[in-house]
Specification:
With 72 residues, this protein is an alpha+beta fold. Helices cover 22% and strands 29% of the residues.
Length: 72
Amino acid sequence: MSHTQSIGERGEPTAALSMLNIDSADPARLARFYAAALGWKVTYSDDSYGMVEGCPPFPCASAGKRIPAGPS
């Protein structure tokens, strides 16, 4: 598992998201969607699950952007 944890400006613990595991009816498709939405890359996908990884900090949150709704 990949994660980072640090202390914020006010001394509170913070964490940065660097990986998503996706379990859905079509994990490969959903993994491609989130990789494109986050600017990350699909590191694994098959019929069971998908995995998307990227560099912290979480780019959408740090840029103040909202993540769009997933494919329907």
